[in-house]
Amino acid sequence: MTPTGDRPDGPADPAAAPVPDHVALARRFGTPAYVYDLDEVARSLRELRSSLPTGTRVYYSLKANPLPALVAALVTAGCHTEITSSGELDVALAAGADPAHCLYTGPGKTTDALGHCLDRGVRFFSVESGTDLRRLDTVAAGRGVAVDCLVRVNGAAAGGSGLRMTGTASQFGVDLADVPALLDTAARCHAVTVRGAHFFPITNAATEDALVAELCGSIRTAAWLRERGLPLEVLDIGGGFAAPYARPGPPVGYPKLADALTAELDERVAGWRDGGPRLAVETGRYLVGTSGTLLTTVLDVKESHGRRFAVLDAGINHLGGLSGLRRLLPTSAQPVQAVAKEADDVGVDLAGPLCTPLDMLGHGLALPGISPGDVLAIPNVGAYGLSASLLGFLSHPVPTEVVVAGGRVVSASRIELRREHVPVVD
Ligand SMILES: *Cc1c(COP(=O)(O)O)cnc(C)c1O
What we know:
By secondary structure, the chain is of the alpha/beta class. It folds into 2 domains: about 50-285, Alanine racemase (TIM Barrel, Alpha-Beta Barrel), CATH 3.20.20; about 290-415, Lyase, Ornithine Decarboxylase, Chain A, domain 1 (Beta Barrel), CATH 2.40.37.10. It contains 11 helices and 20 strands. It has helices at about 20-30, 40-50, 70-75, 85-95, 110-120, 130-145, 180-185, 210-225, 255-270, 285-290, 320-325; strands spanning about 35, 55-60, 80-85, 100-105, 125, 145-155, 165, 175, 190-200, 200-205, 235, 280-285, 290-305, 305-310, 335, 350, 360-365, 375-380, 400-405, 410-415. Strand 3 (about 80-85), helix 4 and strand 4 (about 100-105) form a beta-alpha-beta unit. The protein starts with about 20 loop residues before the first helix and ends in a 13-residue tail after the last strand. Pyridoxal-5'-phosphate binds near residues 105, 200, 204, 283 and 284. Keywords: Pyridoxal phosphate.
């Protein structure tokens, strides 16, 4: 049986570091446990940079995984950070991020969160509406600081696939038709200056062609808006970079992307080669998705009405993110160690430990001979794994998160959910 993490189909990497020994890690730290491989994070970042025009700024979206060691690795490697809460800012700063290199995005920014970020040096925001812009201006002016912003644009649909976030009715961004009014509002602001456009039309694009179509569409929209008065010092075309989730699969490559973006920029956005505008992208999934593995132990194997169930010590409380986000459940897991005894043809359903029939991680899997005590490794869960799950549901302990680099453990930690008492004031 091949240890997970070994990817015979993935791009060859001569500098590949040793693959983490998941069985040994499960013994050492117990299960359930998440294991993240920093060498894989570094490989993903190299691959992404080689798929983009030289000089493109890469933002790491903490939403995908705010584990401090991962954030620190990406910040050290030169990524900027894309944050959407004061909690994410605190993680980014603790990981060594320069607040001047943080971009604060997202709808529903509160006065408190804006104040928290401004007090810690964040000066770059994506604004989602006139109200959002005026609130930022009020909070910044109240502190006497000048800030820059991008206008998040709900651009025209370019077709393609993936979860669409713009181009139709959406809580995200400003409709194209409303951008001039927003610029009028900006002209009356005291503390905020518009520096460019922000797009984030899809996540996890199904194909390279779909991604290219979407990103080039955003470039065209930005060029169109620049002709109509939108300042364009920064062009953040967002992302949509894909990664496999919770099943074996090689990292995704984008061999055509850099040339396609370069050609589109040359045609539409004069000046970009000299940094006017500066191109930026954002991704969480692509940078960390393939770095993470969930180790889980089989607690019970039972038959019911002709079906076989393996009950695991991890369920949707530890790997539920995409179901919470109404995306597909993970559908397959890959054993770490040889569990084959005798081939049998009964597919195994993987159930978690929670008292709900919805706690299923996989269906009809070929896991011959699976037995209590076996350790399974669910690969490619570095993004939208633990922090996107139903951590508080049924109050099981939170999995340990183990970080490895060069085949060695560099940190291990566990999130603790704690109730704090709040003063009751009449
Ligand atoms: C979620 C999100 C991202 C990151 O998406 P990935 O699929 O993890 O790359 C980036 N930017 C914005 C605005 C987002 O909402």
